[in-house]
Amino acid sequence: MTQAVATHEPPRSFIRRYIFSTDHKVIGLQYLFLAMAAVTIGIVLSIYMRLRLAWPTERWPLLAKLFPQAMAGGTISPEFYLSLVTMHGTIMIFFVLTTAPLGGFGNYFLPIQVGAHDMAFPVLNMLSFWVTLAGFLVLLAAFFVSGGAPISGWTAYAPLSAVGEIAGPGLGMGQNLWIVSIALFCIASLLGALNFITTTLNLRTKGMSMTRLPLTVWAWFTTAVLALLAFPVLLAGGILLLLDRVAGTSFFIPEGLIVSDKILPHKGGSPLLWQHLFWFFGHPEVYIAILPGMGITSHVLSTFARKPIFGYRAMVAAIFAIGLLGFLVWGHHMFVSGMSPYSAIAFSLLTLSIGVPSAIKTFNWLATLYKAQIRFTVPMLFALGFVSIFVTGGLSGIILGQTSLDIPMHDTYFVVAHFHLIMGVAAIFGIFAGTYYWFPKMFGRMMNDALGKLHFWLTFIGVYAIFIPMHILGIAGHPRRYAETAGFDFLAPLQPIHVFITIAALITAAAQLLFFFNFFWSIWKGRRAEINPWRATTLEWTIPSPPPHDNFGPQVPVVHHGPYEYSVPGAAEDYILQTAPPTAVKS
Amino acid sequence: MAKTIPSLADIETITIGSRPPGRPDDGGRGGEQRPPGLPEGGYRLAMLFALASISMLFLGFTSAYIVRQGLGEDWRPFSPPSILWANTALLLISSATLHRARSLLRREAIRESLRWLSITTLLGLLFLAGQYEAWRRLAAQGIYLSTNPHSSFFYLLTAAHGAHLLGGLLALAYLTWRGWRRQLLLMGTPDHLKRYGALVGTVALYWHFMDGLWVYLFILLFLWR
Fold this sequence. Notes:
By secondary structure, chain A is mainly alpha-helical. Helices cover 61% and strands 1% of the residues of chain A.
C-alpha cells in the first residue's frame, strides 16, 4: 500500500501561503520579523532613556513627536522614564529574546534538523504566532490609553502593580493591558512549546537518534520544556494580579496600605507572594532566552572550527543541568526582600552551582577551538562574541549570587550591567550568529561579508563600551531606575560616565542600521547561495535554499552520522553530511 | 511530485511507502514505521506534556493558596455547599462512562461506544451546570469573590478548572457528533477507526486528569487544613 500523502502541495492562495500559513518556515520568518519590529521599538525606547540620563535638563521636541502627551514640553518626566523602563524590558525580554531564538529559528530549523516535513501540529503552530502578535499589539496599546504605559517595571512588583491608577500614571488601563499581553504571550508560548517537544520526540527521521541531534535541537527542546513549565506559573500570578486589580480580591495587597493619602480597602495579601510567583517563572525565562543562543553558538563554533564539538554528551548534560537548576534559584532575585537568611543561603549555593554546567560549556567551547583552523566568518565572529560576553556577564553573576555582595549591589547599575550582558547581549549575539549563519538557507542568498564584519566589530566594542562602565556606576552606588540624580551629590561626579555610555549606545544603535540594511538588501540583491555554503553537516544543508514547502519532498532522509563530523580522518572532505552513506569514512 | 536535487544524487534516501526493511545502522528510534502526517502517538505525547503544563498552573495557584492561608486572620473557610458532593459524584461517574466508551470502541462496538460517549458528554455538561449552581447558592449566602481570601480562591479555582473542563467537554461533544455523523465511515475503514480511537484516547486522558484535578481541588479547598 503506497501512501498517497507523501507530499503536501503548498497552498495556492496568498493568504494561506504567507499570512495564515501553517508552514513552519513561514511561521519562523513571521516570528523573526515580529522580533525585528519589536527590537527596533525596544532600542528606540532605550535611546530615550539614555538621552534622559546623559542630559537630564535638555529638551527634545523632535523626540516628543512620538509621545506627544507623555513628553509634553519635550522633556521626559520621571514617570515617563519608568514607563520606558517597563516597556523596554517587557518588549525586549518577551518579544525579542524569547520570540527570535525560539519562535523564529526554532520553528524554521528544528523540523528540518530532525528530518521532519513540518511541526507535529501545524495549526497550533500558526495559532501560537498569531496569539503572540496579538499579545504584542495589546502591549503596544498601553502607550495609547489614558495614563499611558505602566511604570511598574517588567517585573510588575506588587503592590505598585496591584493597586491601580491611584499609585501613578499607567497603573490603570496600561497595567491591565500589560497583564493581558503577558497572559496571551504565556498561552502562545505553551502552544509553541508543545509543538517543539512533540516534534523532537516523535518526528525524527530514520537514524536520527537523540544522540545524533544537533546541539541546537537539544537547546530548543530544553528551552521548550522550560517554557512549558515556567509560563503557567506566570499565568497563575497574572490572573491573581488582575483579580486584585479589577475584582477587589487581596492576594498581593497587604492590610492598611496607604497610597496617595488614602487607606486601601484590601487586607491580608502578600506582595512577596507575587515576587515568588514571578521569579519562579522569571529565572527560567533567563534560560529560555539564553539556551538557544548556546545551542547556536555550539553549532557555529564546531562548523567554523572544522572540528567536532568537544564533549557532545557533556554539552547535552550541561544544557539539562542549567535548565533544571534554573527552576531552583528564583530566590536569588529576592535577597533584599527580607527573606530568611537560611533560605537565602540555600538559594545562593544553588545559584553558584550553575557555574559548574556553565563552565563545562565554556571550556568545551574553548576546547573545540583549541588548535582549530578557525574560519572567521561573520556567524563565527558572533559565536565567539557570544562566548566572550557570556563569560563576562557570568562572572558578575558569581558576584551577585552571594547574598553579602548582592545586598549592597542589588538596586544599583551593577545588576543592570550584569543582566544586560548575560541575558540581553549574549542572547542577541546568539541571534545574530544564527541570522548570519542561516540567512543563505532561509533566503537563498548570502549576506554581505564586509558589512557583516563591520557590524560585528562596532557591536562587539559598542556593547562593552556601554555595559562595562555600568559596573563602575554600580560599584559606586548609583541606584537603578532613577530618571535623574540631581538631588544626590555623591552621584554628580559619575555624570560623565552616563554621557559616555549614551554616546556608546547611540553609536551601537546606529551600527544596527548596517545590519538591517545588509539583511534587507541581501534578500533581493545578495550573492546567490549554494545549498551548503558553509560546508556544514546537518540536514538543513542537504535541501535547496530556500527549502521547498515540504522540506524533503516525497523522500525522507536517512541519517547515518552524528551532527559534528568535521575533519574525520580518512574522509574525502573535511565534513561528512549526516545523510552521507556509512561508507563515507574509509577505515 | 517527486523532486530530485542533483547534488544529492549520492545521498541515500528512501521513498515512503516502498521502504526497504530496516537497516542495521539505523542509529535509534526514528521515523521508521511512521506514515507521514500526524502520528497517533503524537497526540498522547503532546497531551501528557500539556497536562504537565496545566499541573504547573494549578501548582502555582496551590502555592499561592498555601502562602495566603498562612498569612492573615481574615482566612475564613466556608463549608462546601452540598451540591458540590453531587457534582463530584457526577464527574467521577463520567470518567467511568468514558472508560466504558473507550473499551467498547477498542472492541469495535461502535454504536454502543458512541452511546456511552454521549452519556459522558451529558454528565460533563451537568457537572458544569452544577458548579454554576454552587456559585449561585454561595452568592445567595453573600459569599462573593472578594468576600475573603478563601472565597476568592474558591471562585478562582472552580473557574479555572471549569474553563479547562469546558475545553474537554467541547472536544468530547465534537468527537461524539463526528462519531454519530460518520459512523458508517468509521466502520468502513480501519485507519479512520484507529485515528478516531487515538483522538478519543487523548481526550479521555485529559478528562480523567480533569476529574482527578477536581478531586484534588475539592480536598485542598474543603478537607485539607
